[in-house]
């Protein structure tokens, strides 16, 4: 580069992934700009494991509920309660949680800009141009060395700077600017919609999560009721196009007698199903969080994985800035998959089989009655890795699974 850039790194998106990457980089002494529109709140059940709270030093004031059990409900209304022994599932409100993470990035030294990403371009000297639209509608061009796209499953940063990396040499010159060529988003995703409602005062367990495996509510995923302290998230997800998400939430609220509760807000967004095979373009663009596809299959859990990816992306970008070697960007995905790929594969197989028919959902709920299944499920959730310490329990679960898969066990 022949001229100085405005910033070392511009991070697009101030959710858990983007804010964490910005904090990591700013804390390392780099000049960081965090660009976020600020108004949108992602639809999210808000579940976080204790490991996230500990690893990322999350204040307990942001954990609005501590869940001590989950209730899973089958299509025939059979339910199983799964108590959490020796742990909890934390619940956060994304409106407050995300804002706290953005403020943490500012405190670490990142500059924060309220605005919307427009496009990527590249100067002839190799610096990257990020065009941002301010709230008043005006646009500005800012330069940096590396762009981090943490702008969700429909990432425009990825579309322009990652999916068509092979075409980036086919650019048009205009005022010494080389334009990135936009591409199509190959991300497979679940569409999620939820309504945040006022928590009922009577006959409501604020320490229990309810998960519904029922094709009338979701043909291939699940519906949920997650307590958030004074509010409750009631939502559904599905990969089936055209499925009436709003009507499903209304039906669930009707079923549970929650129609009369005040609706605080309504939100919808895509949730990715599989990590992208590549997170960077080998030069100056890398993605994190939903933009990288790091949401766990079957469960849809994304906050922890988003923050881990943001931290790893921040470290990989820092190494690239320090060494000038862009190959260091690949280390982010490599480190993430080394730690979590096996869990993602198992969850993907589980979702692909058990979520396809109501008969299989009935059998899935039946399996969850097993105490070994419950223990190993929660242990894996808390530790974020598969549990290997109980071989006999795994053997029993294996044979029970075989029985249900072959139909030898009754639903």
Show the helix and strand layout.
Layout: E1 7-12, H1 16-27, E2 32-36, E3 47-48, H2 50-55, E4 65-67, E5 69-73, E6 79-83, E7 89-91, H3 94-108, E8 111-114, E9 116-123, E10 128-133, E11 139-149, H4 156-161, E12 173-174, E13 177-179, E14 189-198, E15 208-212, E16 223-228, E17 231-238, H5 245-256, E18 263-272, E19 285-287, H6 303-323, H7 330-354, H8 358-367, H9 371-383, H10 391-406
Parallel strand pairs: 1-2, 1-11, 2-8, 5-15, 11-19
Antiparallel strand pairs: 3-7, 4-7, 5-6, 9-10, 9-13, 10-11, 12-13, 14-17, 14-18, 15-16, 16-17
Helix pairs in contact: 1-3, 1-6, 6-7, 8-10
Which short descriptors sum up this protein?
9-stranded mixed sheet, about 400 residues, single chain, 7-stranded mixed sheet, alpha+beta
Describe this structure in words.
This protein is of the alpha+beta class. It has 10 helices and 19 strands. Strands 1, 2, 8, 9, 10, 11, 12, 13 and 19 form a 9-stranded mixed sheet that branches. A 7-stranded mixed sheet has the order 6-5-15-16-17-14-18, with helices on one face. The chain is globular. It starts with 6 loop residues before the first strand and ends in a 5-residue tail after the last helix. Residues 165-182 and 391-409 have low confidence and may be disordered.
